[in-house]
Amino acid sequence: MTKTDWKDFEQGLIDNYNNNPTVENAEVLFQHFRDQVKANEKITNNLQAFINDRLVEGLGKKQTNNPIGKAFGLVREKGEQPSKASEHAQAHARIWEELFKGETLRNACLTVADEVSLSPEALQSSFRFTKKLLIKDALGTVIPMYFEYLEFEEDKFNIGLDTLTVKRGKSLTKDEISILNKHSKKVNNEIDKHNEREHLIEKKYNMYHKVLSDYWCAFSVDQHAKYKNNPNNLPLWSGKDYRKEFNKLKLPKDIEDKSQQLLKDIIVKGERNEF
After folding, report:
1. pLDDT at position 59, please?
2. I need a surface site. Which of 139, 157, 182, 258 has the fewest CB within 10 A?
3. Which pTM was predicted?
């Protein structure tokens, strides 16, 4: 394809969208632009100008009617993502710009907060890129979990970067990728640390629950009746209730000490027949 043909092709994508501004035509147009940027291919002036004109306007619309958001995967099922997703996408793009200048995350959020309707605290919170790990069965039903494991939220991580890439019309530099990787590593380290804590508490709960279950099996009829024949009425039978006992504890040693105390309490109670 010659330079002229390529220019005509991209102009055709623009004309097609202008004549029939559907989500599908927008997806084709913006996906082409994104592919060109990622491949470091030259973009025609007409297409770049079109993107620049439409970016802010498109991201400012409601998500359900947002062709740009749709092209970048910003439009989700109802309730799946906060209503301020488009605002966060623009804000995250600005935060990345500040981080790429060498600013700290805190200072970047302070700077961007002056430009958007979000507080520095809200911006920094939204920049954590973590979400609760959901485990599903074979039918796709979410399995309830007492312990809150986290995972990296890749889609949210990419939203601001995609917005910034489109805005600038060029890929990230080596230095910028280094800063990005450094931040990503920090987030993943925090996730690992959180999940290690959750795993330790879950392991201690399993030990506690085994002892409590043995007592329940050995209970008399009267003792079962006392708890309405339902072990859920026993102290900290639920993993959710057990986990609450560790809410303010961070260090493994503190968690170990607390779990030993809880285990000792029910053993003493069992030996004294105080259930």
Report:
1. 52
2. 139
3. 0.66
- Whether 98 and 230 map to the same domain: the answer is no
Closest CA to 68 of 89, 54, 83: 54
d(CA 110, CA 107): 5
Query: Does residue 141 lie in a domain region?
Result: no
43-57, 144-158, 248-262: least confidently modelled range: 43-57
Output the six-digit token pair for 144.
């309830």
Note every long-range contact of 254-257, with CB atoms under 8 Å and residues 24 or more positions apart, other chains counting.
255/197, 255/200, 255/201, 255/204, 256/200, 256/204
For residue 247, give both structure tokens.
């809410």
Cα dihedral 172/177/179/182 (nearest 10): 150
Whether pLDDT at 86 is above 70: no
Q: Are residues 163 and 248 in the same domain?
A: no
